[in-house]
Amino acid sequence: MVLGVGYFLKYAFDRNWIGPVGRVAMAYAGGAACLAIGEHFRRKGLAAFGLYLVGGGIAVLYFSGYAAFQVYDLIGQPTAFGLMVAVTALAGLLTLAHDVMWLAVLGIIGGFVTPVVLSSRQDNQIALMTYMTILNGGILWIAAFKRWGLLNGLGFAFTWLLFLAWYGAHYEPVKFARTTIFLNIFFASYAIVPFAYYFVPREQAQRPGFAITFLNTLIAFGVSYAMIREYASTEAVSIVSLAYGTLYFAMAVYLRRRNPQSLDAFVMMVAMAVLFFVITVPLYFSRHWITVCWAVQAAALLWAAVRIVDQRLFFGGIVLLFLALGKFAFHDLLNIFHFDPSVMAFTAGFAPAFAERWLTSLTVLAATFAGAIVLGDSTTKQKLPGARDARNLLLAIFGILAFAVLNIEVAGYFYDYARPARFAAISVLWALFATALMILGFARSVTTLRRVSLVLFAVTLLKVFLWDMAHVSTPYRIVSFLVLGLMLIGASYLYHRYKARIDAPAATDTE
Predict the structure, then answer these.
(1) Can you give the pLDDT at residue 179?
(2) Cα 186 to Cα 216: distance, rounded to the nearest angstrom
(3) Helical H runs in 15-73?
(4) What is the distance between the alpha carbons of residues 104 and 79, in angstroms, rounded to a whole number?
(5) Positive or negative CA dihedral for 217, 218, 220, 226?
(6) Distances (CA, A) of 404 to 372, 397, 399
């Protein structure tokens, strides 16, 4: 039927039997006829057949407006635009009236194609993006009302395709302000709507995923980064990342209070918030402050993972903590605080960066220890696979890092202010550290700590006899021997004092 009518019309057009006005009028009449006949059959009980005709009628009406403007130049752009907007609105109304998703899909496609087919290749940003905003509002309202996730996906895809096409063709820094406004309207549309579904009392299975939320945020932030970096500076981008992080964190807190059963949504929001807070740090801060912020955020992630028992937050917290540890050990100490391992000294001097260095060191140590503590809950060990091993690993890292930091600081201090006593001071430090491990091992009944303490005592003895006696002057050598002797006597006392506990069958490593 379509082919027959089409060939007849082409034959008539080629011989100019029907002029342009008649052709467009026939197209509009044909579209209206499809709508009317489709509605007739729908009411007669042939719903599927009738709605197919209705969909065809909407398509014909779209092409009629296109032909009137673009092919035959019978009407102006504003008139053509208004007609096609009216067709889009009609598709939306029919969607709600007949509860048919595919009519909405057809309306979405036609609605977003309208500004493309009617384009005059001149920039009219405000009109275009205002139209896109209104169209998105209708799409999201229908999608939320009918719970049709496909509409969200189509609206998201067409919105960003159209926006990025305009951006590539027409954006200039002078349009920064209004472009930023529309950009964030589109971002908010597809960031908040999936979140809002979780407050509607529907079944969990009907709730949408968050893939669109992630991609939407990635695109919006990427465009914002390019615009702000060109218009202002890279540091200014941190305003956007901080705003996005705060938005997602506020949404997570609100969701947790209103709908605590929606754990997946809460975790997603927290993860997005942490991601943008992590991004904010290197954008705004620099040097060792990045390490400080990452360490604090990692500890917060591990705390959240334990509170809601979530494996993803647990993994993210561990990864972020190791990033902070690696940056501190292999970048900050060497390149920012100028520590030279070959001479065990700070080339820029011990005093200039003392406060910042100690703040960074203590923060990283505290975050590592706090992470180990929060993972030590017995319930968490059962519900978070790997939590026990991670806790033991973090405790080991904490001990090694604390020992290393103390050695670096002591060596650096004595290198600048009392170089002859440097090696003796390090020996004293090792003896004190071994004693502290010994005391902690007895207090917590942890065999491993006592064994590590004994190994460190043995290494200290070897250092004193093989190195200090040859390289340390007599006064400092005396101090080294006296302190080490006292520590060894104290360790011996502890072993004699708690001999019964050690020999008891229950005296096993509790960790």
Answers:
(1) 92
(2) 9
(3) 20-43, 47-66
(4) 23
(5) positive
(6) 19, 10, 9
pLDDT number for residue 183? 92
- Burial track 37-51 (b if 16+ CB lie within 10 A, e otherwise): bbbebbeeeeeeebb
Which run of H or of E encompasses 339?
strand 339-340
pLDDT computed for residue 209 by the predictor: 52
Between CA 376 and CA 380 the distance in angstroms is 7
Angle of helix 422-444 relative to helix 387-417, nearest 10 degrees, comes to: 150
Query: What CA–CA distance (Å, rounded) separates 206 from 202?
Result: 7
Instruction: State the residue for tokens 């006597």.
Output: 489
Distance CA 367, CA 322 (A): 11
Q: Are 280 and 245 in contact (CB under 8 A)?
A: yes
Q: For residue 152, what pLDDT is reported?
A: 77
**For residue 45, which amino acid is it?**
G
CA distance 87 to 287: 57
Residue 163: the pLDDT is 92
333: which DSSP letter? I
Predicted pLDDT of residue 509: 47
Q: Copy the structure tokens of residue 388.
A: 């026990």
Residue 65: closest CA among 45, 48, 54, 79:
79
> What is the Rg, in whole angstroms, of the alpha carbon atoms belonging to the chain?
35
pLDDT along the chain (511 residues), means of 10: 56 69 77 79 73 73 69 71 75 71 72 69 78 78 69 84 89 90 88 64 48 80 87 82 86 77 72 77 69 82 77 82 89 87 85 86 91 73 74 88 90 83 80 84 78 83 72 67 77 72 51 44
Residue in 294, 282, 280 with CA at minimum distance from that of residue 324: 294
Element spanning 18, H or E: none
State the amino acid at position 341 in one-letter form.
P
Number of continuous H segments (helices) and E segments (strands) in the chain: 21, 2
Q: Are 153 and 104 in contact (CB under 8 A)?
A: no
Contacts of residue 48, defined as CB under 8 A and 6 or more positions apart, other chains included, come to: none
